[in-house]
Design a protein that fits this description.
Number of helices: 5
CATH class: Mainly Alpha
Structural class: mainly alpha
CATH superfamily: ACP-like
Order of helices and strands: HHHHH
Distance between the termini: 11 Å
Shape: globular
Strand content: under 5%
């Protein structure tokens, strides 16, 4: 897993939810830190904006498949974003 991509996503979450980025790991459960389905979509949009890409995922799919920071990182890796973040 790209450590840089993980840190970029953690930084985005930390800024949005006022959490120390150093406490966010790939095992961090998004629901446990207060991320609801709308905020999850906002995180996906922030990733889209950061990388100027389009991620084909709807709210229902995002809420059911993206449960942890690691899930978000895996989504980014599947789109090749780990290579851009290095």
């Amino acid at each position: 897993m790209s450590r840089n991509l993980e840190r970029l996503i953690a930084s985005e979450i930390a800024a949005k939810f006022e959490i120390d980025a150093e406490t966010i790991t790939k095992q961090t459960n998004l629901e446990e830190i207060g991320v609801n389905s709308l905020e999850l979509v906002e995180l996906v949009i922030a990733i889209e904006d950061e990388y100027d890409i389009s991620i084909d995922i709807d709210t229902t799919t995002a809420a059911s498949s993206l449960k942890t920071v690691g899930d978000l990182v895996a989504l980014g890796e599947s789109l090749g974003l780990d290579k851009e973040a290095e």
